[in-house]
Amino acid sequence: MSSNIIDIENLHKTYANGFEALKGISLQIREGAFFGLLGPNGAGKSTLINSMVGLVRPTSGQIRIAGFDIAKNPSEALMNIGVVAQEILCDPFLSVYEMLAFQSGYYGLKNNDAWIEEIIDSLGLSEKMQTPCRLLSGGMKRRVMVAQALVHKPPVIVLDEPTAGVDVQLRNQLWQFIEKLHKKGHTIVLTTHYLEEAQNLCSEIAIINHGEIVTSGATDQLLNSVEQNTVRFRLVKGTVPETLRPRILHSEAQTFVMGFSDAKDLGTILAALQEEDCCIENLQTSRATLEDLFIKVTQSF
What we know:
The chain is of the alpha/beta class. The chain folds into two domains: about 5-215, P-loop containing nucleotide triphosphate hydrolases (Rossmann fold); about 225-300, Alpha-Beta Plaits (2-Layer Sandwich). The protein is built from ten helices and 14 strands. The chain has helices spanning about 45-50, 75-80, 95-105, 115-120, 140-150, 170-185, 195-200, 220-225, 265-275, 290-300; strands spanning about 5-15, 20-30, 35-40, 60-65, 70, 80-85, 155-160, 185-190, 205-210, 210-220, 230-235, 250, 255-260, 280-285. A six-stranded mixed β-sheet has the order 6-7-8-3-9-10, with helices on both faces. It is elongated, with a radius of gyration of 24 Å. It starts with a strand and ends with a helix.
């Protein structure tokens, strides 16, 4: 089996009205990754995720999850993936425990009580275990959806805007639990509009726009490619060398802001200043953010 637990090849989806939602998506997600799938509204994220979990049938292309083709072996493929959808979907008359027990039965699992109780405890649902879902708050219902996605112990967990509309306490508790699962070897696929959240959590990302992947790779490498890292300093003595003048993004009096790509490039700037016997103070660096990258690749597409 490939080290890629999700392998998507040349995926197309055209709806009955002629709208082409996916235009030849190819994407590999390695086993154990914390992967961010990002994009503007209407970019194709939901169609791609729904295709991965069997809710949308692609027009053409192939999706393999843990080596199983979702079109040819849907049961085996779906046993390896759990999804927390954007919409809150809970049976209003079943209790939290009954919903999770029912979900276990859907996957043909027996003697799953210990794992259900561990999930309930980890997500802070113990006091609501016997409460009908219709009586839960929106935040509690969101926790139940996370629990449902985990009940069959899938190696891949897809989180589709999991923290949308939830309070800070739940958000922190949710991420602590998800990071615990990730450390145990689960592959996490996250979609979110909170780009700072994605930057902090995801080691790898892909950005989709107009149905196509516009960039993908390791988060740090992609941020370095933006070349919007900046260094600010005040020049106390000397003159900025001519070789550095094209790098100046802003200057006021003797304070300069210059762009650089990575740590080595920053070293080049400092070495050039030293060679000219420049004396500087108040040195500050600022790294490019995922928002900078997002704007760059979606506006230029």
